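FIELD: query
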Amino acid sequence: MSLNTDRSYKMKLRDVENAFKYRRIPYPKRSVELIALLAISCTFFLFMHTNKLNSRLKEMEVKLQPSEFSALGLTGNHISGHDAGKHDDINTLHGTYQYLKSTGQLGTLTAAQLNNTPKAEREFILFNRLEKVGSQSMTKLLGHLGELHGYVTYRNEIPPAKKIVYNYEEEKAFAEELLELEEPSAYVEHTNWINFTEHDMPRPIYINLVRHPIQKVISAYYYQRHPMIYANSLLRNPNKPTEKKEFFERSFNDCVRQRIAPECVFDPHLPYNGDWRRFTLHLCGNQNVCTHFNSEMATQIAKLHVEKEYAVVGSWEDTNITLAVLEAYIPRFFADATNQYYSHQEKFMINSTPHDSHLDEDVEAYLKQQFAYEIELYHFCKQRLYKQYIAIRKQAEQGQEHSSAENKQK
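FIELD: result
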């Protein structure tokens, strides 16, 4: 083979290699544009779908509290780990359900049995709010819903000082003031239950909130000692004595253990001593017995009022249950409450004062003993709330079954 022939062969071989190395597959110009457009569209829709799913997941994480899966027979969900080991505890939603079922009460339970709203003689909500139970959030929710449903929410001005209980004439005068407010409306104040019937006046729709009494009193203790709260109290009451440094630095555990401050002494039947943070008083009323701390008689009176007079006594410890019950039992004022609460949650979240909620063992044991009736009343309110929730879930499930049966007949 000659040199030229050999060079020519190598050049041809190189051309073939280059052809494979830099090969291109020709596509029509319009096809390339179409593929690019499809790729962009798919990416956009995938992004939108992922974003929607992510938002939905976050929403469900907020809305679904573990304890609210647990009413067996009323939901199709399993018991959460939060309630595991508590199935026989009547003070949980599941425990209340199992108790009603085991005693035969579940079969006859209806929402109407637990609905005191029809007993009201005015389109008027009286929220005689307890202290340190999240009442500010409820007040803001009432105001928000009022704008949507056409009612006004009134809130009293905080007085420099207030009487613990009203006498008959004072209670009547206050009831008359409330009677002058337009309807429909809601009124919010830290005040005791009032017997409107005794004063020959129409009954309002009573609502309230509760919180575990010990956590409530701890929160109140540190709330009083927050610099801004304390400064505001001095502005409202210039005659109030200025506290020393120890007042602000002393822990709740030390205060209870040393019993050196009136708000840290919780002796049974002790007359009202400045500890306005318990809730038996507000639910009991203006009778003298209601001023006694941890009183069995005051507790029984308060229970009677909750059962016969209050439409709903809820708790932010069970947010979804409380909102669902308010919607079902007081729809004129709380329709769409759950959706509005979670859609505008930033409006209803109140910044709490930071504090140490830890209790030493000896202090905790002492408080559980001293708050025995307060805790009993708290559990009574929670059990009633659970019964109301179970009743409306049962009613909803029966409605679905009835609708399904009618559809099958058609």
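FIELD: remark
Confidence is low (pLDDT under 50) at residues 19-34, 54-87.
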